[in-house]
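Sample entry (287 residues):
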Amino acid sequence: MNFQPKRMFGQNFLIDRNIAAKIVRLAGLTENDIVWEIGPGRGILTTELLKIGCRLICYEIDRDLIPGLRERFGERITLITEDVLRADWREVYSETEGQRVKIVANIPYNITSPLLYKITENIGYFEKICIMVQREVAERITASPGIKSYGVMSIRIQHSFQVKKLFSVSRHLFRPQPNVDSEVIELIPRSDRVEPEDPILYWQIIEASFQSRRKTLKNNLGNILSSSELERVSKLTSNRSVEELTSLGIRLDKPLNFDLGSRGESLDEKDFSNLYRIIRAIRQSRE
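Predicted structure, serialized as tokens:
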């Protein structure tokens, strides 16, 4: 396949078949699975996936690669020739008769964040995701509170998935060679996840909390809360009065261990859930 990789598509092609085989093995696939591969490129991972005998659906946006993929794999794959971020996943998923999908892919670096967010927004479609990402992204996804890489992406992905690093992949195993190493990660939808009643407010609070990492919650939340709301939240989180919280109908996920002098990077998911419930209760009490 005579082809020049395109920077605009974030193309860095894996050249080690052993790594492709390892990804497929760790994905734990069976012939009964429906698998999406995003960015099959030259087909090194596609070849290994087809050895399992699963039903394989590939998304490829680069029209210069499509003839080669069709010639090589023919009807053994369903090739969707459009941008996976703009594709109607609902339409594709409707053809699975309710069977949840597995994603196994070496995803293009330039779509990593928007793709992960789209996956979380459509989590009900998926059984497992086994993908290769930049090491920096893997560090952010798996980070815990207090770690420099911990942030909005960490919370958003961990809210929806159990996340695990599987293995590292050297930059030398790609052509063209990227400037970073990669990690293969596994995402499995959490059975215990609880969606907030007001998801817009919930994520607004989290995003505001990390707007300036050096600032406290009080300074960052001042961008989305009125001065009176901020004062009330400050008092409730400082006093930590169970009676006062109960009177507002606030059920905590765990005891309060932060106040508005804390920084967002020190709060875990349950802390943010508590903060969200306090803010929501204050707003509802004034309606």
